[in-house]
# Entry
Amino acid sequence: QVQLVESGGGLVQAGGSLRLSCSASGSTVSINVAGWYRQAPGKERDMVAVIDRRSFTLYADSVKGRFTISRDDAKSTAYLQMNNLKPEDTAVYYCHFDTVHGDYWGQGTQVTVSS
# Structure
């Protein structure tokens, strides 16, 4: 049973940085596409960034130039480096792995940016 374990969320002031991590546990996984999504209160879950096997990346317009997604396949881990955080980045952040065995979601980690 594959589980995705997220870490790195927290409270930060505007302009600060956080690094989120998402690791697969329970089994070795072969990740096709890894992604980060976020959901603010009362809003839908939106894509933040995705990265494929060739390290091709795609970002939401609102985070371009501030966030960087990366992956370490040897560790079955994906990262989201978030710089110059803004209050509107406040949300629960979820990781998602599309793998050869199916797709999986993390439990979510809260990111709160104070002004």
Remarks:
- The chain has a mean pLDDT of 95.
- Residues 31 and 102 are 10 Å apart (CA to CA).
